[in-house]
Amino acid sequence: MRILAIETSCDETAMALVNATGGLSSPKFKIEENVVSSQIAIHRPFGGVVPNLAKREHIKNLPIVLSEIFGDTRENIIAKDFKKVDMISVTVGPGLEPALWTGIEFAKELHKEAKKKNKKLLLRGVNHMEGHLYSFLLQQKTVTQKSKPKIKNMFPSVALVVSGGHTILLLLESLTKWKKLGETRDDAVGEAFDKVARMLDLPYPGGPEVEKLAKDGNSAAIDFPKPMIHAKNYDFSFSGLKTAVLYYLKKNKNLGNNGFADIAASFQKSAIDVLVKKTIKAAGEFGAKSVILCGGVAGNQALREVLGDECKKEKLEFFVPPFEYNTDNASMIAAAAYINFLRKKTYSVKARAGLGM
Ligand code: KG4
Ligand code: ZN
């Protein structure tokens, strides 16, 4: 099945053309095209994403990205290329509502026009967080073992979903059946990275900047709190950690570059320790065979390494998407659309900012 996927939930106008084959026990994805048009430069002066600016940029970028994917004009794409597309899939939530609507309206319009030429063309809504969850399927090998493991042998599995808006721990019984073990009670971990970045005068988006700065710092320099690390449940909290960084900065003036690097490294260590400890604990308690790490924060090399090492020690297979598919992209939306098609799960094609997992 050939899927055109569209993703506009935040500040990336993303589109992908993916050929999906296989059943639920061995889905395969061949990414033919994957375009991400980033708006970072537009939002950077504001220190974060401005929803109405994102909307304006998506409206401008969507037709350009569509032409880039097929290398032709819209007219020709609809007349010719869509004959060989089976489904248009589009993110319906969670995300910024004005941004979501741009992708949805674009998808609906395309579907309406292209359906005149291709009567079987499907239109499907996709949950953005399911996209992140299934992004590991875009590379079906683990970090901890060399051979390609069989997906059907990886369950039960614990998934740590870490993005700018979410921090969720899931227990997966299968690729399509899971329950939420816990989630953040306040800030998402990516949000904490972004806020700490702002305190350290680093540009938006802050996560990768904090990670870069942390490489020059000493992670044992400052003893920041590790909220809820010993709690009996699997919830998280990152607001206190962020505030601890703020207080530290207020108390210690004139720190200089080394001082800032120590803060970045120590903050990052606290955040990673909590995430890894709770993930590994859940894997042990529920007899998991594997761990999945996904979402934008999965791009953090230190987190990948620490969690990967712990998985190795515990003999857990460790699945993590390739670097380019951690942060928002449309290939992961195509993957989720295909899995939901196989399991006959549908989402209505309208924007829902607070859509859950
Ligand atoms: O998944 P994503 O692209 O968008 C959302 O769905 O939220 O995640 C973006 C988040 C941002 O908070 C960003 O700062 C964070 O992921 N992030 C990182 C890194 N790369 C992206 N956080 C820490 N280290 C990174 N290398
Ligand atoms: Zn995302």
Automatic annotation (TrEMBL):
Molecular function GO labels: iron ion binding; tRNA N(6)-L-threonylcarbamoyladenine synthase activity
Database matches in Pfam families: TsaD
Needed co-factor(s): Fe(2+)
Gene Ontology biological-process entries: tRNA threonylcarbamoyladenosine modification
Annotated Gene3D superfamilies: 3.30.420.40
Enzyme class: transferase
Catalytic activity: L-threonylcarbamoyladenylate + adenosine(37) in tRNA = N(6)-L-threonylcarbamoyladenosine(37) in tRNA + AMP + H(+)
Localization per Swiss-Prot or TrEMBL: Cytoplasm
Sequence similarity: Belongs to the KAE1 / TsaD family.
Protein name listed in UniProt: tRNA N6-adenosine threonylcarbamoyltransferase
Source organism of the structure: Candidatus Harrisonbacteria bacterium CG10_big_fil_rev_8_21_14_0_10_40_38
Record gene name: tsaD
